[in-house]
Design brief:
alpha/beta; five-stranded mixed beta sheet; 8 strands
Length: 320
C-alpha cells in the first residue's frame, strides 16, 4: 500500500489546479514564485512532485517559441546539470517574482546538490523511520509550502515584537524580511512521561511544554560551499537563526548540514558552541547521506545520527 502524500503537497496540487482553471498565466506566476523562493532554480522532479506544478505550466514557462514576438521575454529555462533536468529563472523571471534585481544564473553541480539536499535527507530519515517510531518519536521532513509558511510566521512575529519592544541591536529587525530554511525536520514525541524522558535524552533539557513534545521544529540549512548562489553572508544567516530561536521561539533548533570549508567558517561563528549559539548544530553532509568523504565537526552530536539502523533502538535511546 502506498503511503499517503504530505498535506502540504496536496494543498499545493489543489492550488495549481485552481490557478490553471483561471488561466495559464496565474499558474506560471505561482511557479515563478516557487522558483524564486528556492533561490532561482529547482530540479524538474521537485517542481512536479514536491510543489505540484503541472507539466503544461512548466512547458509554457520555458518554451522560447512562445516568446519570439519579444512582447515578453522568456522567464525560465530548462537544461541539464550533471544529467538532471533543471528549471531556472531568467532575469525576466526574477523581475516577475517581484525582485528589482536578479540575473540569470545557470545552475551548477553545487547548486543542484543544494536543491536536492531536502530529498536526500528525507530518504536518509526514511531508512530509520521504523526504529524512530518504535522508540516513541515520529519524524517528518517538510519543505516547499511549509518553508514559506514558517517564514511568514517569523515576519509576523518580528513586526509584532518591534511594536512593543526596543531593538537596539537590530536582531529582530533583521527578521522582518523573513528567513527561508532549506527544509524542516519535525519531531513528535508521545505526550507523557516517556516522551519527556526521550526528549531530554535527545536534547539534554526538559521539554518546555506539551506543545514542544507534540511538535518540535528544527530548521535545516545545507551549506554546500562558501560561494553558494544567492546566500547572504554566513554571519547574517547565523544571527538571524539565533534571533528566531532565542527571541521568537518558533524554531527549536537549527541543523547546519555542511561541507568542510563552510563547516569551518560556521564553527568560527559559534555554530556548534552552545555557549555562543543556542541549539545551532553542525552535521557533516556525508553523515546524512549527502556526499561521500567523511569528516568531523565540533560541538554536540545531533541525536538522529546515533539511531541504530539494524535493531530495536529502545535500549540504545534510554540506556546511559
Amino acid at each position: 500500500m502506498n503511503e499517503p502524500r504530505e498535506l502540504d503537497l496536496l494543498i499545493s496540487l489543489a492550488k495549481q489546479k485552481e490557478l490553471e482553471k483561471h488561466g495559464g498565466e496565474a499558474a506560471q506566476i505561482e511557479a515563478i514564485r516557487i522558483l524564486s523562493n528556492a533561490g532561482g532554480a529547482l530540479p524538474l522532479s521537485e517542481l512536479l512532485e514536491r510543489y505540484g506544478v503541472s507539466k503544461p505550466t512548466i512547458a509554457a514557462l520555458v518554451d522560447e517559441e512562445l516568446h519570439k514576438d519579444k512582447r515578453r521575454k522568456v522567464r525560465a529555462r530548462v537544461g541539464q546539470v550533471s544529467g538532471v533536468p533543471v528549471i531556472w529563472l531568467t532575469a525576466s523571471g526574477h523581475q516577475a517574482a517581484g525582485k528589482t534585481r536578479g540575473n540569470e544564473v545557470r545552475p551548477t553541480s553545487d547548486s543542484l546538490a543544494h536543491a536536492l539536499a531536502p530529498t536526500r535527507l528525507a530518504k536518509w530519515f526514511k531508512e530509520i523511520d521504523p526504529q524512530l517510531k518504535n522508540s516513541g518519536v515520529e519524524v517528518s521532513i517538510s519543505w516547499g509550502p511549509s518553508i514559506r509558511t514558517l517564514s511568514e510566521q517569523i515576519i509576523a512575529l518580528a513586526w509584532a515584537r518591534l511594536k512593543v519592544s526596543a531593538d537596539a541591536q537590530g536582531s529582530i529587525g533583521l527578521l522582518t524580511g523573513g528567513v527561508l530554511a532549506d527544509c524542516l525536520v519535525i519531531s513528535r514525541y508521545s505526550p507523557d512521561e516517556q516522551g519527556a524522558i526521550l526528549f531530554k535524552k535527545h536534547w539534554g533539557i526538559e521539554p518546555a511544554s506539551q506543545d514542544q513534545l507534540a511538535e518540535c521544529v528544527m530548521a535545516v540549512e545545507y551549506q554546500v560551499s562558501l560561494s553558494q548562489g544567492g546566500d547572504p553572508l554566513l554571519r547574517s544567516k547565523v544571527d538571524s537563526w539565533s534571533a528566531v530561536i532565542e527571541q521568537l521561539g518558533c524554531v527549536f533548533a537549527v541543523i547546519w548540514i555542511v561541507e568542510p570549508a563552510a563547516g569551518r567558517v560556521l564553527a568560527n561563528l559559534g555554530v556548534g558552541d552552545e555557549h555562543r549559539r543556542t541549539r545551532q548544530l553542525l552535521v557533516p553532509a556525508p553523515a546524512v547521506g549527502i556526499g561521500s568523504s567523511a569528516f568531523t565537526v565540533p560541538g554536540d552530536r545531533w541525536w538522529p545520527l546515533d539511531v541504530s539502523r539494524d535493531h530495536d533502538v529502545l535500549s540504545d535511546l534510554f540506556d546511559d
